[in-house]
Amino acid sequence: MSPAVVTITQLAAELAAGHSAGGPRRLIGLAGAPGAGKSTIAAELSQALAERGVVAVAVPMDGFHLADATLGHLGRLDRKGAPDTFDGHGYLSMLRRLRAETEHTVFAPGFDRELEQPLAAAIAVDPEVAVVITEGNYLLVDQEPWVQVRDLLDEVVFVQLDDQERRRRLRARHEQFGKSSANARAWVAAVDEPNATLVAATETRADRLLRR
Fold first, then answer.
1. The pLDDT value given to residue 116
2. Structural domain count of the chain
3. pLDDT tens digits for 67-117?
4. CA-based angle 187:188:191, to the nearest 5?
5. What's the CATH number where 168 sits?
6. What residues pair up with 65 in beta bridges, in sequence order?
7. Number of other residues whose CB lies within 10 A of the CB of residue 62
8. Distance from C-alpha of 154 to C-alpha of 53, rounded to nearest angstrom
9. Is 121 helix (H, G, I), strand (E, B) or coil?
10. Is 85:76 a contact under the CB 8 Å cutoff?
11. CA 38 – CA 25 distance, rounded (Å)
């Protein structure tokens, strides 16, 4: 059975209501295939929460990409984006810190699309942050270490987008950041789509579904 559908407006309203009732910091996950629009939704949800007086910060799983130099050393650079091209255990540690360390600023890594590299300590999660939105492909994957992510999040929303449009956006993104049209199509087919197939199988583990 598919999870119940939710909108950004509904989710923001629920989180704002929970914040007004008090309680600990909330960690919300956005899972979905490559190109589904997770980072855009994270930004939109952050804005919707800000409009309701709730401070939110997006901390992407992409900040835990292994650097290209490391991927080259490991022989994995030609499939960058696969589950084993991330520091999954580092991501788990950061989620635990974001849950527990609320009395001081926690600095999380970001990801630079221009460089296609992670950036250390690029995101400041200050004590007043009430909601952390973390988005990534593998939040619901039933493999170590990713299988541990779910228990560290209050809720995971699966972001769904028509596959044809998702692939079109992926090709456009790859071209925007330097690949030729032919190379972009080849990369999507050989690298992104196997990852998308893995992620699609995790939809039923989500709490709710957000359709674009």
1. 86
2. 1
3. 999 999 999 999 999 999 999 999 999 999 999 999 999 999 999 988 889
4. 65
5. 3.40.50.300
6. 86
7. 21
8. 20
9. strand
10. yes
11. 21
Q: Residue 80: which residues within 8 A CB-CB, separation 6 or more?
A: 65, 68, 71, 191
Based on C-alpha coordinates, what's the Rg of the chain?
Answer: 17
- How far apart are alpha carbons 171 and 181 in whole angstroms? 7
pLDDT value of position 129: 98
Range of 205's domain? 4-211
Q: Which stretches of 19-92 are assigned E, i.e. beta strand?
A: 26-31, 56-58
DSSP 194-210: HHHHHHHTTGGGSSEEE
What digits encode the pLDDT tens for the residues 136-192? 999 999 999 999 999 999 999 999 999 999 999 999 999 998 899 999 999 999 999
b/e map 172-200, b = 16+ CB within 10 Å: ebbeeeebeeeebbebbeebbbebbebbe
H or E element, residue 128: none
Residue 203 in tokens? 């939809």
By three-state DSSP, how is residue 165 classified? helix
DSSP-assigned beta bridge partners for residue 124: 107
Strand partners, 159: 210
Q: Which two tokens stand for residue 49?
A: 């929460």
Hey, how many other C-beta atoms are within 10 angstroms of the C-beta on 128?
Answer: 11
